[in-house]
Write a structure and sequence with these properties.
The structure is a single chain. The chain is built from 18 helices and 6 strands. The strands form 2 sheets. Strands 1-2-3 form a 3-stranded antiparallel β-sheet. Strands 4-5-6 form a 3-stranded antiparallel β-sheet. It is globular. With 426 residues, the protein is mostly helical. Bound molecules: carboxymethyl coenzyme *A (CMC). Carboxymethyl coenzyme *A binds next to helix 17.
């Protein structure tokens, strides 16, 4: 809704340009600058898009100052403690929470699609030993398109929902297979008698014909991690998904690009880096030295799992996971030297002026890294777990973008600072 405008005055000429101010449901107002170049002949410049709303969306709302996160108008605390990841996935896709029957039939639809074409195993075979599961996952998701090449346009709502079910159902299987192959372990097929999250843990841990003992708290912890990662408005990987989707590419390509973007250690790779960093620090006696490195302007070292682009108060997801970590440690009786190091870092960072002044609170990755480590999930699988959680969000964002009739291909401009024409004139 447009209800006001902002005037930009060019100080060189005194020319005035009006730009509409758009009112969101909640959150900061947005200046619509789509006509800026046409009217002023200039581009705007926004390094890392810190002041730019790249799209209109009705899916997720974040108030970074208040530490608030909502999916489709539901507070993350409510979803993470009262609902399951499957409820949340349904909510993201259908804009409403499912009733009992809807949830049961959704679960069944996913189960029916949880197997992958047997010939995809040749793809897994082609990777070298110790390949990172994210490398296998991104390739395998892109490769899925080859198995559904007759339905890549997705012109009908039925085709779209079929694609959504297919990707959400197959990613856990591909993820588990990626792990098993990269470790030379026999693959374990989905167990249709198990719930979504329980089945994933089973595919990671089980051996053929063996019994695997999955504790309720372990399934609950992983399910909560999935829910907390399910969407996060226009973060780097979701933006990657939207940019690829804006070219009319199919969702397998878009999701595969999202996986690539998420892999980086400033984004989804952060929880793996948290554990690697704790291992590198090695002992509580070394913590002070590394805190000093993190604060040193001339040192590029950063404390992994601290800080966030949007949350400048606290990350509500981190608060939920901090409680879950404490419960898990208590119920599973965990006592590790990594936890000791993490506790000391957390304590210092929460009281040190450098971190307080810059709002560098422990983020979701700090606690999810510790929880996944406590669940004995190998660290190279952490980003994969993030992907599994984020997939419903990516799909919901893909669907939303497709439904916006005035959607334009993403094509940012630049501030060119290279040489002017150096071509020899003769
Ligand atoms: N350790 C030490 N100093 C830090 C850290 C850190 N983890 N993060 C930011 N700073 C400092 C930075 O040096 C700068 O200091 P100064 O003002 O003196 O130059 C100031 O804080 C602002 O940093 P920034 O890089 O401008 O902040 P940003 O909003 O661009 O970056 C971030 C956000 C998450 C990339 C960054 O905080 C970071 O690299 N954190 C560590 C990696 C991490 O945990 N990533 C997971 C993010 S949450 C997962 C998700 O939602 O994807």
């Amino acid at each position: 809704m447009v209800n006001n405008s902002i005037t930009v005055i060019d100080n060189r000429t005194g020319s005035k340009f009006d730009f509409p101010i758009v009112q969101p449901t909640i959150g900061p107002k947005v200046v619509d600058i789509s006509s800026f170049y046409k009217n002023t002949g200039m581009f705007t410049f926004d390094r890392g898009f810190t002041s730019t709303a790249s799209c209109r969306s009705r899916i997720t709302y974040i108030d970074g100052e208040a530490g608030k996160l909502m999916y489709r108008g539901y507070d993350i605390g409510y979803l993470a403690t009262k609902k399951t990841f499957l409820d949340t996935t349904y909510l993201l896709l259908h804009n409403k929470l499912p009733n009992k029957n809807q949830l049961a039939s959704f679960d069944l639809e996913l189960k029916k699609r949880s197997f992958i074409n047997e010939s995809m195993k040749k793809l897994f075979d082609a990777f070298p030993d110790n390949a990172h599961p994210m490398a296998i996952l991104s390739s395998a998701v892109a490769a899925l398109s080859a198995f559904y090449s007759d339905s890549l346009d997705m012109d009908t709502p039925e085709e779209v929902i079929e694609m959504a079910h297919r990707i959400i159902a197959k990613i856990p299987t591909i993820a588990a297979f990626s792990y098993r192959y990269s470790n030379g372990l026999p693959v374990i097929y989905p167990d249709l008698d198990k719930g979504f999250t329980e089945n994933f843990l089973y595919m990671i841990r089980a051996y053929p014909h063996g019994h695997v003992n999955l504790k309720l708290i372990e399934v609950e912890a992983l399910d909560t991690i999935f829910t907390l990662h399910a969407d996060h408005e226009q973060n780097a990987s979701t933006t990657a998904v939207r940019v690829v989707a804006s070219t009319q590419a199919h969702p397998y390509a878009a999701v595969s690009s999202g996986i690539g973007a998420l892999w980086g250690r400033a984004h989804g790779g952060a929880n793996e880096s948290v554990i690697r960093q704790l291992e590198m620090i090695g002992s509580v006696d070394n913590v002070d030295k590394f805190i000093a490195k993190a604060k040193d302007k001339n040192d590029s070292f950063r404390l992994m799992g601290f800080g966030h682009r949007v949350y400048k108060n606290f990350d509500p997801r981190a608060t939920i996971l901090k409680n879950l970590r404490d419960r898990l440690i208590h119920e599973l009786n965990i006592d590790s030297h990594l936890l000791e190091i993490a506790n000391k870092i957390e304590k210092i960072a929460l009281s040190d002026e450098y971190f307080i002044k810059r709002h560098l609170y422990p983020n979701i990755d700090f606690y999810s890294g510790l929880i996944l480590n406590a669940l004995k999930i190998p660290k190279e699988m952490f980003a994969v777990i993030f992907v599994m959680g984020r997939t419903p969000g990516w799909i919901a964002q893909w669907i939303e973008l497709k439904e916006q009739k005035d959607m334009k291909i993403a094509r940012p401009r630049q501030l060119y600072l290279g040489p002017n024409d150096r071509t020899p004139k003769n």
